[in-house]
Amino acid sequence: MFSSVLTVAVPVAAELSTATSTIQEYNQDGSPLGSPGITGFLVTMVLGIVIILLGLDLTRRQRRLRYRVDYAKAREAELHGETAGKNSQSRVESTAQPDRNTVQGGVSGSSRRAEKR
Questions:
Q1: Residue 66 near residue 75, CB atoms below 8 Å
Q2: What is the largest CA-CA distance in the chain?
Q3: Alpha-carbon distances of 18 from 10, 11, 12, 76, 87, rounded to whole Å
Q4: pLDDT by position in tens, the chain (length 117)
Q5: What is the pTM of this model?
Q6: I need a labelling partner for 36 at 20 to 30 A (CA). Which of 5, 54, 64, 96 fits?
Q7: 34, 20 in Cβ contact below 8 A?
Q8: Hey, how many other C-beta atoms are within 10 angstroms of the C-beta on 55?
Q9: CA separation for the pair 85, 77 (Å, rounded)
Q10: Is 116 exposed, middle or buried (0-12, 13-18, 19+ CB in 10 A)?
Q11: Are residues 60 and 70 in contact, defined by beta-carbon separation less than 8 angstroms?
Q12: Distance (Å, rounded) from C-alpha 39 to C-alpha 25?
């Protein structure tokens, strides 16, 4: 039974395979039907290039933003450091000034700084 089915099926399958391979339909650009062809390749290539360029732009913007944040933090630390430095320097001057100023005529350091402003 199995051999009789094979004897009938094999010639039919061979006939179908030769018939489908000889009948080939093509797109207008000459590529086989079902293939995206040159148009599909070009569209895919353009999309790939656009995605790569967008990725490069994104990394450039992220780098610029990181530099801005670092600069702002450094600026803020510098400003706070200067005010802290001035405060500590004025404290040192205020403790050292009265001794020197009293010898020079009794003017305190804080009133002398007010006169300079």
A1: no
A2: 132
A3: 12, 11, 10, 80, 96
A4: 666 755 766 666 666 666 555 677 887 777 788 778 888 999 999 999 999 999 999 999 999 999 999 999 999 999 988 766 565 555 555 555 555 545 555 555 555 555 554
A5: 0.42
A6: 54
A7: no
A8: 10
A9: 11
A10: exposed
A11: no
A12: 17
Residues recorded for the chain: 117
Structure token digits, residue 24? 């080939």
Q: What is the CB-side half-sphere exposure of residue 24 using CA atoms within 13 A? A: 9
Concatenated DSSP letters for 54-103?
A: HHHHHHHHHHHHHHHHHHHHHHHHHHHHHHHHHHHHHHHHHHHHHHHHHH
